[in-house]
User: Fold this.
Amino acid sequence: AKRTGARILLTSTSEVYGDPAVHPQREDYWGNVNPIGPRACYDEGKRAAETLFFDYHRSNGVKIKVVRIFNTYGPRMHPFDGRVVSNFIRQALRGEDITIFGTGQQTRSFCYVDDLIDGFVRMMDGPEDFVGPVNLGNPDEFTILQLAEAVLRLTGSKSKIVKKAAVQDDPMQRQPVIGLAKDRLGWSPKVALEQGLERTIAYFKSVRWEDFRAPTPNF
Assistant:
């Protein structure tokens, strides 16, 4: 990017906020992250990436753009990627138990993939002096239990909801403030959760399960 003068986009994450003590989360919130927990390598890796991007921007004038992505979903998700939307849809369509870790009262804000891509394009085409970071996410907040119930309703599944022990350092709440994206990019999400889930469920119904394999750990 430095050699060619290209702009470079860092797709960072809402995980940089950790288990936030401030709710909802603005870009100027520095986060509440456990640096040695089981989730730390991802959270801290993204925080380090942001640091390196901004250092290189300041010292070398590289044209950076930094976006923080909140939970994204949509067609072409891998059924076994381990994310909550794909897990719930796969379990519901197979008639398996819907597995919730913890009480189910932890919240997330789910952004449909088309809205996210629109945000990427607007960020890259936006003012050169606006480098971010900027939140890209849907500010509509849902509990994990509400998500599970929506998936069951939309799939018509008879699966049962089963609660298991909470995962260490799993954030209890996650919701973006998107005022900066609205003001600087003219961006806000358009696809409501139920509409997005319907499209995603239709995709999952269209694929052959034997074409996918559950990922295996490399460590």
